[in-house]
Specification:
The protein is an alpha+beta fold and 138 residues long. It has helices at residues 2-14, 47-50, 120-123, and strands at residues 25-32, 38-44, 57-61, 69-73, 77-86, 105-107, 125-127, 131-137. The radius of gyration is 14 Å and the shape is globular.
């Protein structure tokens, strides 16, 4: 889990969301517990990618500047999202000495994991038209 969320942090800082199809616009609205830093978002288009591969799209939501949404124009398909709230703005997910996250994170559908990240089956969702989710990241 730590490795995949660290990848989210690295990739979200490196590349913007890519536009492809406005008919299938995905809007993710983030509710955060802190007003600092940024939410680093990774969107996956398959179970294999979600479980350890590269994201299909990434975005960075600048919470400190008042942003709350990540918008993606996508081809129709099945997706899953992982996000971390980089509260201190250091560009990575901070962890304790045991490797456990010390910054908030969340998954699409507000899915919750059991002793690790939420599994694909709980986080996946379909995009075939305009789609929106509100994600509580705490």
């Amino acid at each position: 889990m730590i490795r995949s969320l660290a990848l989210v942090a690295a990739l979200a800082c490196a590349a913007p969301a890519l536009a492809q199809n406005a008919d299938n616009r995905l809007t993710l609205t983030f509710e955060t517990g802190a007003e600092t830093g940024a939410v680093l978002v990774a969107l996956y288009d398959s179970e294999a990618a979600y479980e350890g591969g590269a994201p299909a799209r990434v975005a960075q939501v600048n919470v400190a500047a008042g942003q709350r949404e990540a918008v993606f124009d996508l081809p129709a398909g099945t997706y899953g999202m992982k996000a971390v709230h980089d509260i201190n703005g250091n560009g990575k997910m901070d962890v304790n000495p045991f490797g456990m996250p010390t910054e908030p994170y969340a998954f699409s559908n507000n899915a919750v994991g059991n002793m690790g990240p939420a599994k694909w089956d709980r986080a996946r969702f379909e995009v075939s038209a305009a789609t929106a989710q509100t994600i509580r990241i705490r």
